[in-house]
Write a structure and sequence with these properties.
Elements: H1 2-19, H2 21-29, H3 32-37, H4 40-53, H5 62-65, H6 67-78, H7 81-102, H8 111-123, H9 133-146, H10 149-155
Length: about 180
């Protein structure tokens, strides 16, 4: 039963993002009006959350790729008014929960505290009728990162003109994935 609800929520999220690609394209073409109206405190919180999900390692992280801006634009351009309100309210609730649990806000926490808190968000039960906040945030982060130039060229092995198929291509620990599906 829980698996069925999780699948419904994932399909709902994927459908929401895929329904309005033209709206997202317009928002991404001129992000200034939306980003200028967004509260800087919330943007800082979102920035640190996405950077904790995909930190800088041997490839640039989500913060460097500007994933936080993508999420703001995707939520504002593609989500319904109710979904937008739920997402931003859940972000604020997450910050309040972090202050209760850690004694300080997410931005002020160190890396270990941030990871611990995000794990607690991921493990928290969500109402059956709506997707879990952390799952939505994580999916938007992954989508934003791997469709960005940095994610596609630095984290993945971008090949603008695929060559021939090599059935016995040697793969070792340094081989990058070709797409975010692997």
């Amino acid at each position: 039963m829980l698996r069925r609800n999780a699948l419904k929520k994932a399909i709902l999220l994927a459908g929401t993002i895929s329904i309005a690609p033209d709206l997202l394209a317009k928002a991404l073409a001129d992000p200034a009006p939306i980003l200028d109206q967004f509260p800087p405190i919330q943007l800082d919180l979102l920035t640190e959350m996405v950077d904790t999900i995909i930190p800088t390692t041997d490839s640039p992280g989500a913060k460097t790729a500007g994933v936080q801006d993508f999420i703001v634009l995707a939520v504002e351009a593609c989500f319904s008014a109710q979904q937008r309100n739920q997402f931003w309210a859940a972000l604020n609730e997450a910050e309040q929960a972090c202050q209760k649990q850690m004694g300080k806000g997410f931005v002020e926490c160190n890396d270990a505290q941030r990871i611990h808190f995000l794990h607690s968000l991921e493990d928290a039960p969500a109402p059956v009728s709506e997707p879990q906040f952390f799952q939505v945030l994580k999916e938007l982060t992954l989508h934003g990162y791997f469709t960005s130039e940095i994610g596609a060229t630095k984290a993945l092995n971008y090949d603008p003109i695929p060559g021939v198929w090599i059935p016995d291509l040697p793969i070792d620990g340094n081989t990058k994935a070709w797409t975010p599906m692997f």
